[in-house]
Design brief:
binds adenosine monophosphate; GMP Synthetase, Chain A, domain 3; 15 helices; Rossmann fold; 25% strand; single chain; 4-stranded antiparallel β-sheet
């Protein structure tokens, strides 16, 4: 049997192909039959351009149903889908092209789709093995060169099936899709649930409050990043009534603040389901669908994922399992460095697992602060700052310090008095953990997935203690 992921999806498309796949904001629907045919025509175009199994197709394009057809067509012909963040500059794109050596680069999926309309659909789906590549995902690495994580067809299929079943996904579900599709969250985690169930998606080009609120009338599931939830909470029109049709709100890609979880529960009566994942492994842990969703915890390892903590109670999170990536594209040494001898991937996240098996993340290993020889986990300090009156969110970083090596610095969304905050923190924390400086800001720098970019904060404050 072929392990081509497109063949798996097509086997799950609804028997009645007239059923909708995409429901657009203007009410237009694109059916599963349209998706299948569009995919087949684009697949034909790919083959006429010489795209063969194993070839990379680099795609930097606006979010659209046609871009999804391009993704599926790439799978159909056995090629390797390589999406790029739409924010990347020409120079960055140039790097990715030289690294991936694609057969084809697509910058406009709609134009490609239009061109494919004159071609005969390609009905055949190329036979592939589970270990063959489905996609190359360039990590949003903030240090060094961005690495291409090689994801396999079998790995994506295994993960998607485990996710869909953990979240009780069915053909009755309607997904509110407002995420970008150049990242694993919107491209794989969200869409694969819909495809595996032949279910529709309310399709939004981007997160826009009014469209999201309107979409909730029809949808049952939303997958989002934490900033989606803070934006919804900031909108008075987001009421219990508006959310009432929704079965499930999922959050991932960045830490969900406990205050967001609590405020959301107060507003809607619903508990956000937080899960944790990364490009190299897709979904790693999830809170339960049935059972307690504990704020601050990312839940239990997904079925099929082995997870362990290296070196002590709180330490590096390491994982093993069938949905893990195959390595970094053309970087065998880098790949070897990030796996242990017994085949666990070193995620670079630091956390702990409680006696019940729930996983708690304290941050990225590279964000760990070493001050005066002591380890400081930023999350511990952030949780305390976040409880202070007037504080919305905080980011704690380490910056070079002549005496301590690194000093703890807090950047805080909100208003307050620096000296009072430091004094208050000092009552609750050892001196080496207490921020030496606190800055109040309107917002923190974030990437497209809502992750706070601590590297930018560290750069900004690098000279703070310079003598
Ligand atoms: P990416 O490969 O761009 O998806 O980034 C993956 C990283 O995002 C992980 O290694 C974590 O550091 C972070 N991340 C994802 N989900 C969560 C979560 N629920 N809580 C905390 N961090 C998360």
């Amino acid at each position: 049997m072929t392990a081509n992921l497109y063949a798996l999806f097509a086997s799950r498309f609804p028997a009645d192909r007239a059923k909708p796949c995409f429901i657009l904001s203007d009410g237009t629907e694109i059916s599963y039959g349209d998706l299948e045919e569009g995919t087949a025509r684009v697949a034909r175009l790919l083959t006429t351009r010489g795209v063969a199994p194993g070839d990379r197709v680099v795609v930097q394009t606006a979010k659209s149903p046609e871009a999804v057809m391009l993704y599926l067509a790439t799978l159909k012909v056995g090629a390797v889908f390589t999406p790029l963040n739409t924010a990347y500059t020409e120079a960055e794109v140039g790097y990715f092209i030289s690294d991936a050596e694609p057969k084809l680069v697509v910058r406009d999926a709609i134009a490609l789709f239009a061109e494919a309309q004159t071609l005969e659909p390609l009905n055949e789906t190329v036979a592939r093995d589970a270990d063959d590549l489905a996609s190359l995902i360039y990590t949003s690495g903030t240090t060094g060169r961005s690495k291409g994580a090689m994801l396999t067809l079998g790995g994506l299929a295994t993960n998607a099936q485990a996710v869909a079943s953990s979240w009780g996904y069915s053909d009755k579900d309607v997904l509110l899709h407002a995420l970008p599709i150049f990242h694993v969250h919107g491209l794989f985690i969200a869409m694969h649930c819909a495809f595996l169930n032949g279910a529709p998606m309310v399709w939004l080009a981007k997160f826009e409050d009014a469209a999201v609120l309107a979409g909730m009338k029809r949808a049952t599931v939303m997958m989002g990043v934490p900033t989606f939830y803070t934006r919804l909470l900031a909108n008075a029109g987001f009421t219990r009534d508006v959310a009432s049709h929704m079965r499930l709100f999922v959050s991932g890609s960045a830490p969900l603040l406990e205050s967001t979880f609590d405020d959301f529960a107060d507003r809607t009566g619903k508990r956000i389901l937080e899960r944790y994942g990364m490009s190299e492994a897709i979904v790693i842990t999830t809170n339960p669908l049935d059972g307690d969703r504990v704020p601050g915890s990312v839940g239990f390892p997904l079925p099929g994922v082995e997870l362990r903590i290296a070196g002590g109670d709180t330490g590096g999170i390491e994982i093993r399992g069938p949905s893990l990536f195959k390595g970094y594209w053309r970087m065998p040494e880098k790949t070897a460095q990030e796996f242990t001898a017994d085949g666990f991937f070193i995620t670079g996240d630091v956390g702990r697992q409680d006696p019940d098996g729930r996983v708690w993340i304290s941050g990225r290993a590279k964000d760990l602060i070493i001050s005066g020889g002591y380890n400081v986990y930023p999350k511990e300090i952030e949780l305390i700052i976040d409880e202070l009156p007037g504080v919305v969110e905080s980011a704690v970083i380490g910056v070079p310090h002549p005496d301590f090596g690194e000093a703890v610095v807090a950047v805080v969304i909100g208003k307050g008095d620096e000296r009072a905050v430091i004094a208050e923190m000092r009552e609750r924390l050892a001196a080496f953990k207490t921020p030496k400086r606190v800055f109040f800001v309107d917002d923190l720098p974030r990437n497209a997935m809502g992750k706070v970019q601590k590297n930018l904060l560290r750069d900004k404050h690098a000279d703070l203690f310079k003598v």
